[in-house]
């Protein structure tokens, strides 16, 4: 195995769920070079790939598909925030999540939908029809939370999305 391929594989082992752009930035290698080595590692059965909401995440062998989806989502700041709140306060409402995380309800809705699609959480409703979030596997999620932190670039993308949501939310209310 070449030194670059060994470095790529080592980075994936120490950063499970890393997405493509983050890997390229972290290792400071060319896009084509990363694609080549990732393709070779995948063909050799040395890594798994998960596509989730327009991002490709890479994993070393040993994680099941639920763990892969959960780790990929834990790398996203807002989804991670929702999960952390739901671990502390089982079944928080969408309004509580929006207030706690200081994000627009539409942002909460998008991330909750992603968590539900990935089987990390489920939506439930109270007797007043308000939606709440409940983690499907809270203890396993808590264990994975300790393994993963969102990258700086993931946090910046999430914050940019919040800025856009806030800007459009304010202009829509002024009309």
Structural description of this entry:
The chain is 61% helix and 14% strand. It is α+β, with helices and mostly antiparallel strands and 175 residues long. 31% of the residues are buried. The longest helix has 23 residues, at 152-174. A three-stranded antiparallel beta sheet has the order 1-3-2, sandwiched between helices. Strands 4-5 form a two-stranded antiparallel ribbon. It is built from nine helices and five strands. It has two domains: 1-62, Arc Repressor Mutant, subunit A; 71-143, Winged helix-like DNA-binding domain superfamily/Winged helix DNA-binding domain (Arc Repressor Mutant, subunit A), CATH 1.10.10.10. Residues 170-175 have low confidence and may be disordered. The chain has helices at residues 3-14, 20-27, 31-43, 65-74, 77-88, 94-101, 105-117, 138-145, 152-174; strands spanning 18-19, 47-52, 55-60, 121-125, 131-135.
């Amino acid at each position: 195995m070449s030194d670059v391929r060994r470095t790529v594989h080592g980075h994936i082992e120490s950063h499970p769920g890393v997405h493509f752009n983050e890997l390229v930035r972290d290792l400071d290698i060319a896009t084509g070079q990363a694609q080549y080595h990732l393709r070779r590692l995948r063909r050799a059965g040395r890594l798994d790939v998960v596509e989730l909401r327009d991002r490709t995440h890479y994993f070393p062998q040993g994680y099941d598909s639920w763990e892969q989806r959960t780790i990929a989502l834990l790398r996203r700041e807002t989804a991670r925030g929702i999960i952390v709140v739901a671990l502390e306060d089982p079944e928080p409402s969408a309004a509580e999540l929006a207030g706690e995380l200081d994000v627009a309800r539409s942002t909460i809705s998008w991330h909750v939908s992603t968590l539900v699609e990935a089987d990390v959480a489920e939506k439930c409703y109270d007797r007043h029809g308000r939606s709440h979030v409940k983690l499907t596997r809270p203890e396993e999620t808590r264990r994975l939370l300790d393994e993963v932190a969102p990258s700086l670039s993931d946090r910046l993308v999430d914050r940019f999305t919040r800025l856009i949501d806030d800007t459009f939310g304010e202009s829509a209310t002024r009309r």
